Amino acid sequence: MQVKCKLKRVNGTIIDLFGQTYHFTPNAANDHVAEVTDPHALHRLVNEIPVGYELYGADADKVVLRPASMPVSTPHPFQASTDRTTEPVEPLIVKTEEGEEIDLMAMDREALAEFATKEFGITAHAKWKADTIRNKIIEAIRVAGSES
User: Fold this and answer.
1) pTM to 2 decimals?
2) Which of 1, 38, 55, 119 has the most CB atoms less than 10 A away?
3) Where do the structural domains in the chain lie, given as residue ranges?
4) The dihedral of CA 100, 104, 109, 113: what is its sign?
């Protein structure tokens, strides 16, 4: 089924949707259209993005699109997954000068910032996230190891 992209770009519009690439190019009437056969993509474009896309052709107003049944696990291609389940994180163990073993993965941002300052003299920037602080600690350990 032909779908019209309401936005007209010089070289047309290219989108990737559900693993398929669609190129909306000008036709003889200078309407930017592409053939969309995937029912999920057709529903997404026409029903969920009506500001940008519409059915094209003489019978377009007679077609009624119903939502295509999509697997629950398929995330919206323009949006992060809402699945918040987390897998167990492998520990990242470092030893302090006193010989104490510390798991960096079990520490929150504040504890990491305090540990980085105390053990390595690293002052964590206010915008650094926990992963950034962990990476700075690992970098400091590598530098210290290469100097020995």
Assistant:
1) 0.45
2) 55
3) 2-62, 93-147
4) positive
